């Protein structure tokens, strides 16, 4: 067994080790990555040959977290791991987006990368290590791959950039970005931040590059030591260079003319490009009648590949040489924008945001604490009170096919929009918020349209956002070995597909809130990156201005159909009194008032949320809660309920859970032999005045007679000696009487707070 271990240090002295040759040896490549007590296994397997007819890179990356890694059982009836959760899909996408561009363009064999979290102590964040582990597994294999990469998380904590911070450190971070890169070039960026500047983000990327470089060098050493620096041979494409040259010669000028014409309509532009290829194929078939139908079909498949290169080159040259884009815009122009709020009558908030041929219809729903999303992942357990769901039906691009379940792309795009908006929901906003973005048209950057439409829908619903958020997608055209380049604002779908960068940023007027960047070219300098960021800022400001012309601030009043919610705080010691034994009191309050009441203990304080369809129900519930948590005051008059009758008086509940003794001598000015003489029964309402609170026991002494007119000539009678009347709980014969409690409250001291 040839076990090889390599170690690399992070800037703060912590180490990451890579081990290969010990486990999973039947794979093409496998490594075990360790950082502290966090352990990941990454494996890669590739088919020897491509499936006939495949003309793309069939890569599948799966990141899975085992519950046993944290010593936990999975939830559900089966008690085993099921389909990938959102966090696993998002981590898989982070790795996929860095690896995919580094396979040779003519390599089409199926490749499967699997990363498993095997051990985690909740200190180090494993998602930041997945990219490093996957690339190291590739380095241990002979699968064709251009160069090793790695990924790190960068957080800014107290003004300092920290690489791969712990969960605990993240609590103080104002920036959280994941960076994937080779030793020389940034490949992928994704993250969120608290309104930071563009220069601060560039500083984070520089810190990431410094940490990633030694990780890539380690993989290069490992590959040489294993002999896997020599990659396998393959032949997944058979090319006809004569046909390639013929297509370029006969179609390039025609494609360039369409690119230069600047047709604003996506569909007509596509039809024009398709006609050029169809005409060429028709002419080719007529000139090659000697070929069989099967041979012509193979030639047509090759033509599609070669023609795609012609379209790509003509579009890029038109932008670089003439500054003209496919839809006629200049590089910094934003497509026409129109917005509308409240297009739908019943949702709590709704909006339409349209930019060019990209359109989002977004709705906002406001709910109670009961609507929060339960998160039960391996390393995270809690609740989410802001949700954003993004849907991309096939009809938005004119495709005639059925809509299936939510795909990885939809989860990723929705997560980016969620990150861009979530920081602007006030922490003390009592509602649970759900945004749903339905993409009705798509031609570039529907996730950024979701951010803009989401902001409008939130404001339409009356959510008091800290600041409005807008988003934009930027592109880049840069040919290898050429100094000339062009940064494109508000890219089209074709500019994303045929360009070298898809760089999305969201932000408020104060700064960035989220970003996502994928780079497809080598040698992206920080100078180009800074230009793209500043051009994006100008574009975001323009888009935000258009949005504010539709609705400039959150509505002062929520719509009538929104459930009303108030929040109050109560002392920790009163939480039990409000809930009651087995939830008896809180359930009764909800039944009586029609309100929904939830209580949580946060930082030693009871956080009470009351929600109801109308104000009367809220006021009624609020009154009941306040009466429970209120402290009785000496001298105040209360309308109480007689809870129990004793020979020496009766116990009266003056507030929920607070009973006081109304002695028989305090019922009336005249002498009473029994309580029943006064006509008092259990359940009766009676007004009493709180005369005294015993400083030692906290017992309440009540009086009813003090509220009655004093008889003329009344002389206070001399009280009987204490021993004659017996103590509380004794019978007249002096023996102690046992009284069964009527309920939980009676089993406690009547005069003490519960």
Any overview of this molecule?
By secondary structure, the protein is of the alpha+beta class. It contains 15 helices and 29 strands. The chain is 30% helix and 28% strand.
Number of H- or I-type helical stretches = 15
Structural class: alpha+beta
The biggest sheet, with number of strands, parallel, antiparallel or mixed sense and barrel status, is: 8 strands, antiparallel
Identify the overall geometry: elongated
Give unreliable regions as ranges. 723-754
Strand fraction equals 25-35%
Distance between the termini: 69 Å
How do the strands line up in the largest sheet?
Answer: 8-7-9-10-21-20-18-19
Can you count the beta strands? Answer: 29
Average pLDDT metric:
90
Outline:
This protein has 754 residues and is an alpha+beta fold. The protein is 30% helix and 28% strand. The strands form six sheets. It has an eight-stranded antiparallel sheet with strand order 8-7-9-10-21-20-18-19, with helices on both faces. A six-stranded mixed sheet has the order 1-2-3-4-6-5. A five-stranded mixed sheet has the order 11-12-13-17-16.
């Amino acid at each position: 067994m040839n076990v090889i271990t390599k170690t690399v240090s992070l800037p703060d002295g912590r180490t990451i080790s890579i081990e290969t040759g010990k486990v999973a040896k039947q794979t093409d490549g496998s490594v075990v990555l360790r950082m502290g007590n966090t352990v990941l296994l990454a494996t890669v397997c590739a088919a020897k040959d491509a499936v006939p007819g495949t003309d793309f890179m069939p890569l599948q990356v799966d990141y899975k977290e085992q519950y046993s890694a944290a010593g936990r059982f999975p939830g559900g009836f089966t008690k085993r791991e099921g389909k990938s959760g959102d966090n696993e899909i998002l981590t898989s996408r982070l790795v996929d987006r860095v690896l995919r561009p580094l396979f040779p363009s003519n390599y089409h064999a199926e490749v499967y990368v699997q990363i498993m979290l095997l051990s985690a102590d909740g200190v180090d964040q494993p998602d930041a290590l997945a990219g490093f582990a996957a690339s190291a597994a590739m380095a241990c294999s002979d699968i064709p791959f251009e160069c090793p990469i790695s990924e790190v998380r960068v957080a800014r904590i107290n003004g300092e950039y920290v690489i791969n911070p712990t969960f605990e450190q993240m609590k103080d971070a104002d920036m959280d970005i994941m960076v994937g890169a080779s030793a020389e070039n940034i490949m992928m960026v994704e993250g969120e931040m608290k309104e930071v500047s563009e220069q601060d983000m560039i500083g984070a990327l520089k810190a990431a590059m410094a940490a990633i470089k030694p990780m890539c060098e380690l993989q290069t050493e490992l590959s040489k030591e294993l002999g896997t620096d020599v990659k396998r041979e393959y032949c997944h494409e058979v090319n006809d260079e004569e046909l390639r040259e013929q297509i370029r010669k006969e179609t390039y000028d025609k494609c360039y003319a369409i690119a230069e014409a600047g047709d604003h309509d996506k569909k007509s532009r596509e039809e024009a490009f398709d006609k050029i290829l169809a005409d060429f194929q028709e002419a080719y078939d007529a000139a090659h009648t000697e070929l069989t139908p099967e041979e012509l079909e193979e030639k047509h498949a090759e033509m599609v590949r070669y023609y795609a290169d012609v379209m790509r080159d003509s579009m890029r040259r038109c932008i670089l040489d003439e500054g003209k884009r496919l839809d006629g815009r200049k590089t910094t122009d934003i497509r026409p924008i129109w917005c509308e709020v409240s297009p739908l009558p019943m949702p709590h908030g709704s909006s339409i945001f349209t930019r060019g041929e990209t359109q989002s219809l977004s709705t906002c729903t406001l709910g109670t604490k009961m609507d929060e999303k339960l998160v039960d992942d391996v390393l995270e357990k809690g609740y989410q009170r802001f949700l954003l769901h993004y849907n991309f039906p096939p009809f938005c691009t004119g495709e005639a096919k059925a809509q299936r379940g939510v795909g990885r792309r939809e989860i990723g795009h929705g997560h980016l929009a969620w990150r861009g908006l979530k920081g602007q929901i006030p922490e003390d906003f009592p509602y649970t918020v759900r945004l749903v973005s339905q993409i009705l048209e798509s031609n570039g950057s529907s996730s950024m349209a979701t951010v803009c439409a989401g902001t409008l829908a939130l404001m339409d619903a009356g959510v008091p956002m800290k600041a409005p958020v807008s988003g934009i997608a930027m592109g880049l055209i840069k040919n290898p070995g050429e100094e000339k380049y062009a940064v494109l604002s508000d890219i089209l779908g074709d500019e994303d597909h045929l360009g070298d960068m898809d760089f999305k940023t969201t932000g408020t007027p104060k700064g960035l809130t989220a970003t996502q960047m994928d780079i497809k070219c080598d040698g992206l300098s920080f100078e180009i990156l800074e230009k793209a960021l500043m051009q994006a800022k100008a574009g975001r400001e323009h888009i935000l201005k258009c949005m504010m012309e539709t609705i400039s601030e959150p509505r002062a009043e929520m719509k009538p159909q929104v459930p009303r919610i108030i929040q109050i705080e109560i002392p920790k010691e009163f939480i039990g009194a409000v809930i009651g034994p087995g939830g008896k009191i809180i359930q009764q309050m909800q039944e009586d008032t029609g309100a929904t009441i939830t209580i949580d203990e946060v930082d030693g304080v009871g956080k009470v949320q009351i929600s109801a369809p109308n104000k009367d129900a809220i006021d009624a519930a609020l009154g009941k809660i306040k009466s429970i948590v209120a402290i009785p005051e000496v001298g105040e008059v209360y309308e109480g309920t007689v809870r129990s009758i004793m020979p020496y008086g009766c116990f009266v509940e003056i507030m929920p859970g607070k009973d006081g003794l109304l002695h028989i001598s305090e019922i009336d000015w005249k002498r009473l032999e029994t309580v029943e003489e006064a006509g008092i029964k259990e359940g009766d309402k009676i007004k009493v005045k709180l005369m005294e609170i015993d400083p030692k026991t906290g017992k309440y002494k009540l009086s009813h007679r003090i509220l009655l007119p004093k008889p003329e000539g009344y002389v206070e009678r001399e009280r009987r000696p204490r021993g004659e009347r017996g103590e509380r709980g004794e019978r007249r014969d002096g023996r102690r009487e046992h009284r069964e409690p009527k309920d939980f409250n009676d089993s406690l001291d009547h005069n003490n707070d519960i």
